[in-house]
């Protein structure tokens, strides 16, 4: 099985980022919108995919958010992969950097409808009052 990088295809910002990956990062991974996949076969859920990008490795290992991005970048090939993307992915995967990346990732996810390429349809649903934790 090829590794798969999963993004939200209903979000223009996410789709723009996926397009950047496809144009600029040579990777063995499939870059796919979660809406077009059999999520159960990949061990993913729609809720998880709506919240963060996902990485499903060839071995079935799953990572999400910045950890998924780090996995994708560390798989990059070609000259730009060796010189740029792999080192960035390795740095992002380092425990202290990854810990700092999560709050930034969550901020981007919550505000993706306001970012370049984003649309109101990109906004994550707000939790209902009954869904809030005490």
Walk me through what this model shows.
This is DUF393 domain-containing protein. Pfam families: DCC1-like. By secondary structure, the protein is of the alpha+beta class. The chain has one domain. The protein contains six helices and four strands. The chain has a four-stranded mixed beta sheet with strand order 2-1-3-4. A hairpin with a 5-residue loop joins strand 3 and strand 4.
Output the helix-strand order.
EHEHHEEHHH
Distance between the termini: 42 Å
Structural class: alpha+beta
> Unreliable runs, pLDDT <50, ≥5 residues?
none
- The geometry reads as globular
The whole-number mean of residue pLDDT values reads 90
Helix segment count? 6
**Helical percent range?**
40-55%
% residues in beta strands = 5-15%
Rounded Rg: 15 Å
Number of domains: 1
Query: Biggest sheet: strands, sense, closure?
Result: 4 strands, mixed
Per DSSP E runs of 2 or more residues, the count of β-strands stands at 4
Strands of the largest sheet, in order across it?
A: 2-1-3-4
Please outline the helices and strands.
Blueprint: E1 4-7, H1 12-24, E2 30-33, H2 39-42, H3 46-51, E3 54-56, E4 62-64, H4 66-74, H5 78-93, H6 95-111
Helix pairs in contact: 4-5
Pfam families: DCC1-like
Protein name: DUF393 domain-containing protein
InterPro entries: DCC1-like
